[in-house]
Design goal:
Blueprint: H1 2-44, H2 50-53, H3 62-75, H4 81-87, H5 93-107, H6 111-114, H7 116-131
Helix pairs in contact: 1-3, 3-5, 4-5
Length: 143
């Protein structure tokens, strides 16, 4: 009975440990989503959000850093130049490309909205158009 009691306790402890770890991982994923939302909200706050976005550039999650750099690029202006320049050294390629677009946007206003993201969206839309069904209400060209 002693060995069975120890075995049962070990199973209970292992189950509790795994449940605690799963809850902890779930909280981290939710925490990342909250930080991404916060970074995007700061982008809508205007130039006052630049200083508050700087800590997000050092975040461990690439998603959070992408959202922060995207917000900085949308804000633009002189205050965003230093954080965008620092983001060029990030290990994530998308963070680097967005920071580059944000810097170019400072010198060529409107580039961020019409740069590589716009071309990617147009390419994706044209690809999806090939798979969409035809509208039956519109007459054919030969009619």
């Amino acid at each position: 009975m002693g060995a069975a009691y120890v075995y049962l306790n070990m199973r209970v402890l292992l189950t509790l440990f795994l449940l605690t770890a799963a809850v902890g991982l779930g909280n981290q994923a939710g925490d990342v989503k909250q930080r991404v939302k916060a970074a995007r909200a700061l982008g809508k706050a205007g130039s006052g959000g630049v200083e508050q976005l700087k800590p997000y550039l050092q975040d461990g999650s690439a998603e959070v850093r992408r959202a922060a750099v995207s917000s900085l690029a949308e804000i633009g202006g002189q205050a965003a130049l230093d954080p965008l320049t620092a983001a060029l050294g990030d290990g994530d390629g998308e963070v680097q490309m967005t920071a580059t677009s944000g810097l170019v946007n400072f010198y060529l206003p409107g580039y961020y909205q019409s740069g590589w993201r716009s071309r990617l969206k147009r390419g994706t839309d044209s690809l999806l158009d090939r798979f969409r069904e035809d509208n039956e209400q519109i007459g054919r060209a030969h009619v």
